[in-house]
Amino acid sequence: MTEKRFTRSSSDKMIFGVCGGLANYFQIDPTIVRMVFALLFLMEGVGLFAYIILAIVMPEDTAPVANTGSNGREAKEKSEPQFEPLGSREN
Hints:
Elements: H1 18-26, H2 30-42, H3 46-57
């Protein structure tokens, strides 16, 4: 049995990964969590304050899920950009 951890998501994030981490923990769509934070922000800025606190307190996950995210999309794998040496292309 794997242990559930309350961490920021490194694979499903827009700014700091707080909403993606909360969605992974509660097994819900990250869009719903983002909408809740947006609504809380419109209610006297409580959402922004809570988001900043969670971004500071929550640790970032160390092993991103490679198969699928909580919303069914495949996680993006980090890869090095491919560069060609100068002068290797013919014009």
